[in-house]
Each structure stands twice: as structure tokens, then as C-alpha cells.
């Protein structure tokens, strides 16, 4: 049984640049940083970066990260050098989603969901 998002791992061509970019985007330093893996704790979930010789990033599903204001988060990621992929839109019931391509070619989604509550 799936219990919820725990970890998203993005392959990056330049681990040092990706670590610096995500440190700025997340407004925190990684809790784990080695040449083979960099890990960030983001609200109890893990964002991992692994070195990979690729310019385009990985193909696959988009991981959506919860944010209090999807439009503001989307705009901030673009200001930090991300590229538009999916503009923020209401997908029903007041849930807002959007996605950008980070500077390393990975899809990074944001979701503002007023119905989602973390368990106490």
C-alpha cells in the first residue's frame, strides 16, 4: 500500500550547481551531502540529487510539492532560473497546480491543496 510521497530523486549533470540552486530555492542547506547523493528534508519529505551525466534530466512523472501559495512559488522558481512547463491552474475544488523545469531539466511541480492536512 502506498502511504504518501517520501522521496523524489533528481539526476543532475552538475551536482554542486544543483545543490546550490536547490539550497536557494528551498531556503535551506542539505542535511546530507556527499559526492554520490545530496539530500534535503522538505517538510518531512526527501528531495535527493544524484550525479548523472545528462543535460536533459530524467523523463518520468512529475512530483508535486505542497506549497501555501502556488502562484508565488511558481513565480519564485522562474526567478531562480527555472523554465515554465505548466502554468498554475485550478484543477477543481480550489486545488492549484503548476510545474517548471529546473535548470537541470527535471520537472518540479507545486500544488496548493486546501484539503490536504498532514496527520498530527
TrEMBL record:
InterPro entries: Glyas_Bleomycin-R_OHBP_Dase, Glyas_Fos-R_dOase_dom, VOC_core. It holds the Pfam family Glyoxalase. CDD domains: VOC. Residues 4-113 form the VOC domain. This is VOC family protein. It comes from Hymenobacter properus.
Amino acid at each position: 500500500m502506498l502511504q504518501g510521497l517520501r522521496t523524489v530523486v533528481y539526476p543532475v549533470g552538475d551536482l554542486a550547481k544543483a545543490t546550490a540552486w536547490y539550497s536557494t530555492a528551498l531556503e535551506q542547506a542539505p542535511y546530507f551531502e556527499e559526492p554520490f547523493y545530496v539530500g534535503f528534508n522538505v517538510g518531512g519529505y526527501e528531495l535527493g540529487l544524484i550525479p548523472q551525466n545528462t543535460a536533459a534530466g530524467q523523463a518520468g512523472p512529475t512530483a508535486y510539492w505542497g506549497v501555501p501559495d502556488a502562484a508565488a512559488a511558481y513565480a519564485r522558481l522562474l526567478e531562480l532560473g527555472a523554465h515554465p512547463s505548466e502554468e498554475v491552474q485550478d484543477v477543481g475544488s480550489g486545488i492549484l497546480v503548476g510545474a517548471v523545469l529546473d535548470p537541470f531539466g527535471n520537472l518540479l511541480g507545486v500544488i496548493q491543496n486546501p484539503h490536504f492536512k498532514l496527520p498530527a
